[in-house]
Amino acid sequence: MDFVRSPEWPGVPIGGLAGNSATARYSTAPGTPPALGRATPPPPGPPPPYRPPAGDGPPNRPPAAPPVPVKILVAGGFGVGKTTTVGAISEIAPLTTEAEMTSAGIGVDDPGIRSTKTTTTVAMDFGCVTIDRSLKLYLFGTPGQARFGFMWDDLARGALGALVVVDSSRLDDCFPAIDFFERAGLPFVVGVNAFDGRLALELGEIRWALAIGDHVPLVQFDARDRLSVRDALLVVLDRALDRATRDRKA
Questions:
Q1: Which residues pair with 218 in a beta bridge?
Q2: Lowest CB count within 10 Å: 19, 62, 189, 192, which one?
Q3: What are the extents of the domains in the chain?
Q4: pLDDT for 74-127, tens place per residue?
Q5: How crowded is residue 166: how many other Cβ atoms within 10 Å of its Cβ?
Q6: pTM of the model
């Protein structure tokens, strides 16, 4: 048998076109190349400018506003946990200026009996944390030694509030910080750092010993715990916003 014909193809009359031929399929004779390019020549003149179809591309929305920066100080006496506080909450690697404590500091820098501290802040600590899309806190930790007290005025410039970190077993070390912010008129919150998860005194006793009024918030927190530090900073922020609201109404 020389060929096989499909039964679905109709018979071709003599001189007719085969149903499966190129001529029948494409209406062109075999060997005729297909037409390429435009069917008609383009109109004279430059081409029109490109315009994207309607609905394509991103919607025309205004850019989101950056968060409002808010400067907060983390202050207190020597070895109360200021550097730990900033490092626990900062969303970036905190900037610290720690230096090794040497024998020259004996009798000058006293971190307390319970402390295993071997370094000390000689300038400041810095960190930041985003509260939400509209607010970002920039934290500046002050040095605790009295000989660096001259830096506090510069660090406090532009701050809206402060967290004064207190060691309940060494209340005497926090009096200079409280006096500083009372004289400066800067809103502050006293945060009692719970070393080993407990306090040496009750919060009411601490308030009485520090002689701070009821208008000054007094909170307990753990400088090592991020959520605990966050809650303390939110109290500082609330205090600062309350002061700003009252000043605006006045």
A1: 190
A2: 62
A3: 68-249
A4: 998 888 889 899 999 999 988 876 666 555 555 555 555 555 555 666 567 899
A5: 26
A6: 0.67
> Tokens 């402060």, residue?
162
How far apart, in whole angstroms, are the C-alpha atoms of residue 67 and residue 218? 28
Nearest to 21 by CA among 29, 6, 3: 29
Q: Which CATH number fits domain 68-249: 3.40.50.12780, 3.40.190.10, 3.40.50.300, 3.30.40.10?
A: 3.40.50.300
pLDDT in tens, 142-164: 886 666 667 788 888 999 999 99
